[in-house]
Amino acid sequence: MCSSAIVFYLAFWGPILNERIGFSVSAAATLAAWTAVAGAAGQLLIGRFIDHRGAGTIAWMPLLAVPCLMLIGLVQLNAVAYIAVIVLAHVFVIGGHGGIISICGIFYRPAIRANGAGWATSMAKFGAMLGPWLAGFVMDHGVDARGTFFVFAFFPVAMVVLLVVLGRIQKSLPADSDGSLQVPAPALR
């Protein structure tokens, strides 16, 4: 839910926020398109590490997003600095989101894995609705475009905490259980 909330906040409000920060309509739209490409690159980057290190490794992506979001929310950046930071934020936020989606089924037994992953991703839809609504709500109540980035820095923090817990659970699973990172001992014949 946290991941979807921030991803959909950035997707739906991104061009509007870029415009309110000072970019022209066409520049705001172009920046939004390039940040989506950066997010896809982040997904490719994190995908390389998930299989070998487990769920806990995904946590570094949203963790790195927090200073980016807080920097935008708290500091008046010039255009070049804003572009650099918003691109990095998208790499980390969307990369982490792709990682989370990729592992959501590993903790379910094979017999119910598809059902479990379906339920997990359907719960994320609540975040997808919450993110854009919350952005509109806080802006209606006096928070400016930059300030929304500070508000939404909460979501990656929550993601990191939850991912670290999930990673610890995964590492503690016995070797013969689903989702374990441990290699089961070969069967003796």
Task: Classify the fold: give the CATH topology.
Answer: Growth Hormone, Chain: A
Radius of gyration: 18 Å
Instruction: Tell me the structural class.
Output: mainly alpha
Q: Percentage of helical residues? A: over 70%
Number of discrete domains? 1
User: Main sheet, how many strands, which sense, barrel?
Assistant: none
The ordered string of helix (H) and strand (E) elements is HHHHHHH
What does this structure look like?
The protein is mostly helical and 189 residues long. It has one domain: MFS general substrate transporter like domains (Growth Hormone, Chain: A, Up-down Bundle), CATH 1.20.1250. It has 7 helices and no strands. The radius of gyration is 18 Å and the shape is elongated. The relative contact order is 0.19.
Summary keywords:
mainly alpha; elongated
Write the layout of secondary structure elements.
Elements: H1 2-21, H2 25-53, H3 60-74, H4 79-103, H5 113-140, H6 145-152, H7 154-172
How do you describe this structure in short?
The chain is an all-alpha fold and 189 residues long. It is 76% helix and 0% strand.
